[in-house]
Amino acid sequence: MQFELFDHRPDPSSVSDVENRCYDCLEQLQIPFTRIDHEPADTIEICHPIEKNLGTKICKNLFLANRQQTVFYLLLIPGDKPFKTKYLSKQINSSRLSFGSADKMMKLLNIAPGSVSVFGLMNDKDKAVSLLIDEDLKNDEDIGFHPCKNTSTLKIRYDDLIHRFLPGIDRSFQYVELPWTFDDE
After folding, report:
1. Torsion angle, CA of 21/27/32/35, rounded to 10 degrees?
2. Does the structure show a pLDDT above 60 at 8?
3. Where are any strands of DSSP class E within the chain?
4. pTM above 0.85, yes or no
5. DSSP character for 17?
6. 38-79 per-position pLDDT tens digit
7. Residues whose CB falls within 8 Å of the CB of residue 9, separated by 6 or more in sequence, listed in order
């Protein structure tokens, strides 16, 4: 499957408000991107042909919460890396983690499940969601994310994420080290 690559935003009348805010933010911060439009892609498996055409890996963006759904995290990890919450819970001194609810995701990030993305942090004005980034992503020159809607994917430089986007929205982050294999398997 071949996709057309774009280096500009789509017509603002053709996308949602949350997508337009994402493109506005990237333009304001002068962060270049390459874009592919596609059918809804809400799993990494569906994203594999998109990755091939975009020329970069799309990372998993996991919206997590503590058991009481009172503390929230957005975890970025390589798309093909397995994940078990107990390895993360220990590192961040949190009670057992699970996936955050769709309602909380929409309220805090203004994103629906299947479209969660680091770009949603621009909507978290109260900074209620802490950003966690797997150390392995530091090895990537480029990285792929949905622009808050899973019908497009953007490739940006990892350096632009860390040194332009996150400071531009006044967000900090914590690196975490998660295993590729697990002792309990």
Report:
1. 40
2. yes
3. 5-6, 34-37, 60-66, 72-77, 97-99, 129-134, 142-145, 152-157, 174-176
4. yes
5. H
6. 999 988 889 999 999 999 999 999 999 998 999 999 999 999
7. 20, 23, 26, 27, 35
